[in-house]
Amino acid sequence: MQSAVNEIIIGKVGAARGLDGTVKIIELTDFAGRFDDLEKISVGGKIFAVEQVKYIGGQLYMKFVGVDSREAARALTNKFLTVDRAETAPLADGEFYIFDIIGCEVFNDSGKIGTVTDVLKTGANDVFEIDGKILIPALKSVVRSIDVVAKKILVDEYAD
């Protein structure tokens, strides 16, 4: 069984912008405005205080306290931005984070089908990829229940 995820990736540092240490941020979250009120964030495993968050031409840029030159900003390029799980955005009932779904064992009435290895975003609905070879649509008509604590998903019999 997979252990609980404590650090959640919400972005990745892109290129330096300007000379003052500002960096472009590639957002890896579905929550608009996720970065707007951040006071601190982990960048590549090191905690930084957030000095400024700004949007220019629809792109997100951040400035961290102590990162005051283009060279210092370049050292952060390609590092992931993470927050503690306790700081994740709240979800509505019946919604789940993808990182909670991955690793769940999938069962139907006949027994275990396999383990979720990926969640594909198709536009119409998400699709659970089971053991890299079985695809199950994440629809209420197919998925009977999801228990992310027990890491178990129950699906209809025909869904295998």
Structure description:
The chain is mainly beta and 160 residues long. The chain folds into two domains: 7-87, RimM (Elongation Factor Tu (Ef-tu), domain 3), CATH 2.40.30.60; 98-155, SH3 type barrels (Roll). The chain has two helices and twelve strands; from the N terminus they run E-E-E-E-E-H-E-H-E-E-E-E-E-E. It has helices at residues 70-74, 98-101; strands at 7-17, 22-27, 40-43, 46-56, 59-64, 80-84, 105-108, 111-121, 126-130, 134-137, 143-147, 152-155. Strands 1-2-5-4-3-6 form a six-stranded antiparallel barrel. The protein has a six-stranded mixed β-sheet with strand order 10-9-8-7-12-11, with no helix packed on it. Strand 11 and strand 12 (152-155) form a beta hairpin. 20% of the residues are buried. The mean pLDDT is 90.
How many distinct domains?
2
Question: How many individual helices?
Answer: 2
The shape, in one word, is elongated
Order of helices and strands: EEEEEHEHEEEEEE
Number of strands: 12
What percent of the residues sit in helical stretches (DSSP H or I)?
under 10%
What is the CATH C level class of the largest domain, in words?
A: Mainly Beta
Instruction: Specify the CATH homologous superfamily of the largest domain.
Output: RimM
Strand content: over 45%
Rg over alpha carbons: 19 Å
What's the story with the biggest beta sheet?
6 strands, antiparallel, barrel
CATH topology of the largest domain: Elongation Factor Tu (Ef-tu), domain 3
Structural class: mainly beta
* CATH architecture level-2 label of the largest domain: Beta Barrel
Distance between the termini: 21 Å
Strand order of the largest sheet: 1-2-5-4-3-6
Determine the mean pLDDT. Answer: 90
